Amino acid sequence: MAKMIKSLREQADKAERAAVSALDPELAEGFQALARAYRAQADVIKSKKKKTKKNR
What global pTM score does this model have? Predict the structure, then answer.
């Protein structure tokens, strides 16, 4: 589970770097949106993991 969260955060970082280097504003916004989506997925997985631990 932690490996998946780490991987999603790394992908978000890559997308943000691509957004900064993109010359096309629409492409940059697309990369920013992708980065937000990756971070949101990581946050959801992390919160589900915490809920599972609390229920034990």
Answer: 0.86
Give the residue from 39, 34, 41, 42 showing the smallest Cα distance to 15: 34
Question: What's the chain's length in residues?
Answer: 56
- The full DSSP string for 1-51 is -HHHHHHHHHHHHHHHHHHHH-SSHHHHHHHHHHHHHHHHHHHHHHHHHHH
Mean per-residue pLDDT for 30-54?
Answer: 92
Let me know the angle formed at the C-alpha of 42 by 18 and 45, rounded to the nearest 5 degrees. Answer: 165
Per-residue confidence (pLDDT) for residue 49, from 0 to 100: 82
